[in-house]
């Protein structure tokens, strides 16, 4: 066993506090990582505050992890000390089911082991990246190419792959018109990736307050959803719409923006069930789908793609002592566009 400094939540209404946690002893296939940066995802906040239910306390959040390999197990072959690496939303899967064999470990039928607040197959509970070190089985450790800095790479391990996976799965490219609902921590990276893939990119945001940013990051068009006239003019326009917000939007209106055979992909997780009018789906043979993060191979592909195209998150780096303040600011949408913890300050 080794110890690491971390920030943990002990109750839904308690602020995160500094603590010391134990990390498992390094096994033959394990990699010990010195965490350098950890992104703050809204999922962290939902979990720390038990807004989705099912949180086991105490919990150390964080599944956007970028760091340097400090030590490797005796049988590790894919990583070496000094490598730039990352860890995303999960750290184990059965490796045997059809999903795992297809490279979709995130849909493991046995149940993927998430990076935090998740029970391992051995009956322990995982703690995430708001810490100075983490031990991860080598097959779930990703290489971060030199073309992207560690701080801006950290959010790619969740936000980046959450957008890259559906963009690739539904064929975003030069012949596709893509709309992204929400210009936040997820949406802004989606704009960058969709633009790099060659798609025609439109941002649908509540207001035009981030229009300049959106177009700077690659959006071809930008519309305020509060302007009902604008939405009417966009009916039937898009091949693919990615909804990045976790609010109960009028899905019928957004399905109406899809062209024939178009797909709306839900990425956000609202607190209440979504209402999807059947006729809006039947018209033009539209589809309503969902997507989680990608598998390990696809996540590595995403990191390599982002390095090639010089894509990283737009970030605000904070010390550990400002985590609770950052949580409140995320809830208020007061960040452009992702907080990243400098773990050297823990």
TrEMBL record:
Keyword Transferase found: no
Keywords of this entry: Metal-binding, Oxidoreductase, Zinc
SUPFAM superfamilies: GroES-like, NAD(P)-binding Rossmann-fold domains
Cofactor(s) required for function per UniProt: Zn(2+)
UniProt catalytic activity: a primary alcohol + NADP(+) = an aldehyde + NADPH + H(+)
Domain Enoyl reductase (ER) per the UniProt entry, residue ranges: 14-341
E.C. code: 1.1.1.2
Enzyme class: oxidoreductase
InterPro entries hit by this protein: ADH-like_C, ADH-like_N, ADH_Zn_CS, CAD-like, ER, GroES-like_sf, NAD(P)-bd_dom_sf
Keyword Phosphoprotein applies: no
MF terms (GO), sorted A to Z: alcohol dehydrogenase (NADP+) activity; zinc ion binding
Family: Belongs to the zinc-containing alcohol dehydrogenase family.
PANTHER family the record matches: ALDEHYDE REDUCTASE (PTHR42683)
Entry protein name: alcohol dehydrogenase (NADP(+))
Source organism of this protein record: Rhodococcoides kroppenstedtii
């Amino acid at each position: 066993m080794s110890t690491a400094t971390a920030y943990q939540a002990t109750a839904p209404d308690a602020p995160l506090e500094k603590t010391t946690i134990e990390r498992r002893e390094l096994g033959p296939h394990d990699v010990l990582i010195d965490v350098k940066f950890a992104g703050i995802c809204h999922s962290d906040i939902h979990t720390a505050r038990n807004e989705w239910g099912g949180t086991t306390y105490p919990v150390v959040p964080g599944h956007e992890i970028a760091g340097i390999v400090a030590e490797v197990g005796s049988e590790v072959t894919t990583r070496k000390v000094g490598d730039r690496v990352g860890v995303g939303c999960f750290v184990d899967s059965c490796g045997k089911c059809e999903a795992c064999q297809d490279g979709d470990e995130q849909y493991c039928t046995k149940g993927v082991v998430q990076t935090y607040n998740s029970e391992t197959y051995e009956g322990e509970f995982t703690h995430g990246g708001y810490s100075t070190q983490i031990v991860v089985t080598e097959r779930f450790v990703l290489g971060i190419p030199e073309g992207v800095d560690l701080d801006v790479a950290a959010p790619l391990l969740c936000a980046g792959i959450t957008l890259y996976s559906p963009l690739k799965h539904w064929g975003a490219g030069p012949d596709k018109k893509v709309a992204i609902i929400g210009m936040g921590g997820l949406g802004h990276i989606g704009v960058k990736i969709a633009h790099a893939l060659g798609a025609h990119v439109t941002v649908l945001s509540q207001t035009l307050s981030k229009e300049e940013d959106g177009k700077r990051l690659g959006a071809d068009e930008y519309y305020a959803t509060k302007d009902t006239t604008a939405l009417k003019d966009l009916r039937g326009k898009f091949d693919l719409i990615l909804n990045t917000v976790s609010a109960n939007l009028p899905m019928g209106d957004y399905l109406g923006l899809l062209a024939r055979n178009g797909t709306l992909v839900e990425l956000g997780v609202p607190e209440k069930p979504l209402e999807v009018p059947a006729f809006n789906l039947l018209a033009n043979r539209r589809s309503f789908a969902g997507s989680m993060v990608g598998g390990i191979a696809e996540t590595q592909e995403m990191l390599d793609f982002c390095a090639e195209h010089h894509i990283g998150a737009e970030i605000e780096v904070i010390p550990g002592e400002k985590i609770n303040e950052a949580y409140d600011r995320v809830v208020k949408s007061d960040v452009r566009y992702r907080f990243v913890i400098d773990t050297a300050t823990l």
